[in-house]
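Quick illustration, no need to memorize.
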Amino acid sequence: MPSARPPPSPRGPTAHTTRAHTSRAAYPKLVETLLHELAHNMVGPHDEHFWHLFAQLKADYLRYHKQAAAAGTLHEGRSPLELAGVTQDVADVRGAVLRALEHDRQEGPVSQMQVGLLDGYLAATDMAIGGGGRTLAEGSGAASSGAGAGAGATREEMRALMAERAAARRDGGGGEGGASGGAGAGGSA
């Protein structure tokens, strides 16, 4: 006689979350996968354009958390760096992005071209050195300057910046260090 098993959850077998799936160690890996898949929304194949976009997303993600922590943002009394598991990564954003690239590409050391592209992107978007670039957290300059340093962009400013970057990439202009050329969406992970 077969053993009686409870029927599957209406939400499916993956709806049951365990502590192992939500641990601090798993969260950075989940975010890394999310950033990888977001990059596929713009560039299908794993080519140099794709890896440069992935590097930009990872850098912006880390710098957003760094800026939120510097502004004193807390969630349930804890730093966003602690919650996201990126405390060590934000101390060296460049190094963390290069490590993520090497790990995700699984093709050995990162190419000098990718290192140069990353350095150019970081320099162009680093507000601390007056590069004039911006990340999603930094807003659009004049519109967010009245909100105080580190306050971050409003949702409308973030949407406008994301639309601006997407349009620049779609039109092949590359935007603020974005992927350029004929790389289109499509393909799979």
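DSSP finds eight helices and no strands in the chain.
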